[in-house]
């Protein structure tokens, strides 16, 4: 029931936006077996107890994509209530990482300039516009 989700404390989630020098960003597709399977989102995952958001981000990127995030800056926070969970998303932008993305959890991923993958996870949609304003001129 939605009311129960709305009254539970939000789950903190670390979300990373890998941004190449040309402004392209990495999106991943949620794998089968997870809520919203097939939807595209920025990679990340749940912050564990006692873990900082940045540490969670680094761990998730290593576990899911085999990438070592060298630095990332906090960008924004968004709360979203899905039918299955109330989440507080902590977005970080990283322009410095080591390695190339690998599909370690069987997920598809794609570098996007002008985002043209669908469907997008609902909490991701407003961020696409905001990111367009951040892109560095080539």
From TrEMBL:
Metal-binding found in the keyword field: yes
Gene3D superfamilies: Nucleoside Triphosphate Pyrophosphohydrolase (3.90.79.10)
Cross-referenced InterPro entries: MutT-like, Nudix_hydrolase, NUDIX_hydrolase-like_dom_sf, NUDIX_hydrolase_CS, NUDIX_hydrolase_dom
Keyword Magnesium attributed: yes
Cofactor or coenzyme needed: Mg(2+)
E.C. number(s) listed in UniProt: 3.6.1.55
Keywords: DNA damage, DNA repair, DNA replication, Hydrolase, Magnesium, Metal-binding, Mutator protein
Residue intervals of the Nudix hydrolase domain: 9-134
Catalysed conversion reaction: 8-oxo-dGTP + H2O = 8-oxo-dGMP + diphosphate + H(+); 8-oxo-GTP + H2O = 8-oxo-GMP + diphosphate + H(+)
UniProt similarity note: Belongs to the Nudix hydrolase family.
Name under which the protein is recorded: 8-oxo-dGTP diphosphatase
Native source species: Herbaspirillum hiltneri N3
């Amino acid at each position: 029931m939605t009311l129960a989700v709305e009254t539970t404390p939000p789950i903190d989630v670390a979300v990373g936006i890998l941004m190449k020098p040309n402004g392209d960003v990495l999106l991943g597709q949620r794998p089968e077996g997870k809520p919203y399977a097939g939807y595209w989102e920025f990679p990340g995952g749940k912050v564990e107890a006692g873990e900082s958001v940045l540490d969670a981000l680094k761990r998730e990127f290593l576990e899911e994509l085999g990438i070592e995030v060298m630095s990332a800056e906090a960008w924004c926070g968004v709360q979203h209530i899905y039918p299955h969970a109330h989440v507080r998303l902590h977005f970080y932008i990283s322009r410095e990482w080591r390695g190339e993305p690998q599909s370690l959890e069987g997920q598809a991923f794609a570098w996007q300039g002008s985002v043209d993958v669908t469907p997008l996870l609902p909490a991701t949609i407003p961020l696409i516009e905001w990111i367009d304003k951040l892109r560095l001129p080539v």
